[in-house]
């Protein structure tokens, strides 16, 4: 399986922006679907945004709370996944994890969930506070 390493988290003021990066090494295929998840203490890890591969026409999913503010992208030659986060809010504070998703016949819009995750990164902390 691939190893995934996130970076780019930190402390940012409300309304600010951050760009999270996830770089894969080891076993990696461009046809992996990928995603970003987040978790805060006392709550379950949730899907933030997911992106399929070229062979699945780069379908995207965004959670309702981040739609219009976050953008997921990938750079296949660099084996990298990104999450551009704009207009950050205090409720976006969480540990953010990148992941690969398992292949499934479940519609992609239903697959940005932890039970479809194949591989996890170690997480990067995002704190939105004034």
In what range is the share of β-strand residues? over 45%
Number of strands: 11
String of helices and strands: EEEEEEEEEEE
- Helix fraction by DSSP (H/I, runs of at least 4): under 10%
Amino-to-carboxy terminus distance? 39 Å
Tell me, briefly, the overall form. Answer: globular
Integer average pLDDT? 96
Structural class: mainly beta
The oligomeric state is: single chain
Largest beta-sheet characterization: 7 strands, mixed
Structure notes:
34% of the residues are buried. It is globular, with a radius of gyration of 14 Å. 0% of the residues lie in helices and 48% in strands. The protein has strands at residues 2-7, 10-12, 18-26, 33-39, 46-51, 60-62, 70-75, 80-85, 94-101, 117-120, 124-128. It contains no helices and 11 strands. It is mostly beta strands. The mean pLDDT is 96. The strands form 2 sheets. Strands 2, 4, 5, 6, 9, 10 and 11 form a 7-stranded mixed beta sheet that branches. Strands 1-3-8-7 form a 4-stranded antiparallel beta sheet, with no helix packed on it. β4 (33-39) and β5 form a beta hairpin. The termini are far apart.
Short description:
The protein is an all-beta fold and 130 residues long.
Task: Please give a handful of descriptors for the protein shown.
130 residues; mainly beta
Helix and strand arrangement:
Blueprint: E1 2-7, E2 10-12, E3 18-26, E4 33-39, E5 46-51, E6 60-62, E7 70-75, E8 80-85, E9 94-101, E10 117-120, E11 124-128
Parallel strand pairs: 2-11
Antiparallel strand pairs: 1-3, 3-8, 4-5, 4-9, 5-6, 7-8, 9-10, 9-11
